[in-house]
Design brief:
The protein is mainly α. The chain has a single domain (8-147), classed as Methane Monooxygenase Hydroxylase, Chain G, domain 1, CATH 1.20.58.220. The protein contains 4 helices and no strands. It starts with 7 loop residues before the first helix and ends with a helix.
């Protein structure tokens, strides 16, 4: 979607939101991988660290939303630009939700650490987590390509 506008600050604002989303996506990928480790290893200390990472993801989502709304209000974008800004808002909301799920996985470890593992659940969790991590990575890669 590489377009140049007459008003260069608009391009700069759009690029700033894109950068925030990419940072957010990287954090979400890391948080999900860590949450899986927490569950599989029943690592309570890593669980605490993983839960704390969610705060930064929430802050980034808020910042993306604020900047997108500001762009909508001040620039009144049309067509492709409007769709891109709406996509920014939706992508950030979904990334934030994934971060919440990862945080909840890490939070449940405190209870799960007190129980014995069930059969082949560890392998199933590993496989499911890897599939989800791959999906997130592919979506973020597609998003990057779309933005170019």
């Amino acid at each position: 979607m590489e377009q140049t506008h007459i008003v260069k600050s608009f391009d700069k604002d759009m690029g700033g939101i894109e950068d925030l989303l990419l940072e957010m996506g990287g954090l979400v990928e890391t948080q999900l991988a860590d949450a899986t480790k927490v569950l599989l290893r029943r690592d309570l200390e890593l669980g605490i660290v993983t839960r704390k990472k969610d705060k930064r993801i929430n802050e980034l989502e808020h910042e993306v939303h604020e900047r997108a709304v500001r762009l909508l209000a001040l620039r009144q974008p049309m067509a492709d630009d409007l769709r891109t800004i709406i996509a920014f808002i939706k992508v950030s909301a979904n990334l934030e939700r994934i971060g919440d799920y990862a945080k909840n996985m890490a939070k449940r470890t405190t209870v799960l650490a007190q129980t014995a593992p069930i059969g082949g659940s560890e392998n199933t969790l590993k496989r499911m987590s890897l599939m989800v991590q791959e999906m997130i990575s592919e979506v973020l890669d597609a998003f990057i390509l779309w933005m170019q």
